[in-house]
Amino acid sequence: MTVTDPEDGKIAPERMTVGFNFIPYGRDMAGALTQGGALPTPKGKELFYSLDCKACHTENSASVGPSLMDIAGKYEHTDKNTVLLADKVIRGGSGVWGTVL
Ligand code: HEC
Prior knowledge:
The longest helix has 13 residues, at 79-91. This protein has 4 helices and 2 strands; from the N terminus they run E-E-H-H-H-H. The protein is mainly alpha-helical. The radius of gyration is 18 Å and the shape is elongated. Strands 1-2 form a two-stranded antiparallel sheet. It has one domain (4-91). The chain has helices spanning 29-34, 43-50, 68-74, 79-91; strands at residues 4-5, 9-10. Helices cover 34% and strands 4% of the residues. Residues 51-53, 55-57, 64-66, 71, 85, 88-89, 93-97, 100 line the site of heme C.
């Protein structure tokens, strides 16, 4: 699938989320949008925004801590890394990213 946007140009596939809605009673967009038509927020993102992580991390740019996209790029998505990073979030860690700001 290819998506282009006048502002951002071509959108990378990993940034796309595709949703599908079946509207049984015709083309009622208002109905589609109010009948639970909104895409579910990924669980990790929901958790992130419900905690205090956003005080030091943003999705795309370095703040007090590295951006989530930078962290995602540094660690391969494996069970081992999930455990490693969860442990660091719980116990704390330092020195991996140097002084971010
Ligand atoms: C007080 C600021 C602060 C808060 C709040 C915070 N972080 Fe961080 N985080 C940092 C800093 C600074 C680093 C870089 C540490 C380093 O260089 O090892 C970091 C690094 C990380 C890393 C990468 C660890 C590594 O070793 O590469 C992850 C994952 C992370 N944070 C997740 C979270 C999550 C999830 C939360 C919320 C539960 C959170 N952080 C809240 C400041 C913060």
